[in-house]
Specification:
Elements: H1 3-18, H2 22-36, E1 42-49, E2 52-59, E3 67-69, H3 73-81, E4 85-87, E5 105-113, E6 116-125, H4 133-152
Antiparallel strand pairs: 1-2, 1-6, 2-3, 4-5, 5-6
Helix pairs in contact: 1-2, 1-4, 2-4
The structure holds methionine sulfoxide (SME).
Length: about 160
């Protein structure tokens, strides 16, 4: 990873360990990611409840997509496939649900514990093809840190 990605990870790692609960850990995570990585125009976390992704903490303009059914959009596809999705040009991807007209590229990383999807990290950029293997590595490592913190405060449904 680049120095920028490495220092973003260190900051998130410290915050996730220090915060008192999972919600605060998620809030700090999206704030720190957007502070360290200028290409991250919108950074948010969706939580999966049943078959629906519900928008949790985010940094950036409000999104109209506060609830996304599993399988819909790039977010729903990543959760259904349990795999990271990088889209270099959102306007060329028929799955894409628009949040901002300025968005050009997107990465979605599932947050999983014991093979179960708890939610996902969703990052948008105003730059085409903004996300590289460094972003994938960073965000997959962040998702691994967050999963137990999210699970600890999660209501059983
Ligand atoms: N673009 C996402 C929807 C969420 S907004 O980007 C915040 C998607 O296609 O699923």
């Amino acid at each position: 990873m680049t120095d920028r990605h490495t220092s973003a990870f260190a900051a998130v790692e410290a915050a996730v360990a220090a915060e008192s609960d999972g919600t605060r850990a998620m809030e700090s995570t999206v704030q720190l990611l957007s502070q360290h990585l200028p290409d991250y125009t919108w950074a948010g976390i969706y939580l999966l409840y049943g078959n629906e992704l519900c928008l949790g903490p985010f940094v950036g303009k409000p999104s109209p997509h506060t609830r996304i059914p599993l399988g819909r959009g790039i977010c729903g596809a990543a959760a259904a496939e349990k795999a990271t999705i990088i889209v270099d040009d959102v306007n060329a991807d028929p799955r894409y649900l628009a949040c901002s007209l300025d968005t050009r590229s997107e990465i979605v990383v599932p947050i999983m514990l014991d093979g179960e999807v708890l939610g996902e990290l969703d990052i948008d950029s105003d730059r085409t093809a903004a996300f590289t293997s460094d972003d994938r590595e960073l965000l997959e490592r962040v998702a691994t840190l967050l999963a137990p913190r999210i699970a600890e405060g999660r209501p059983t449904v």
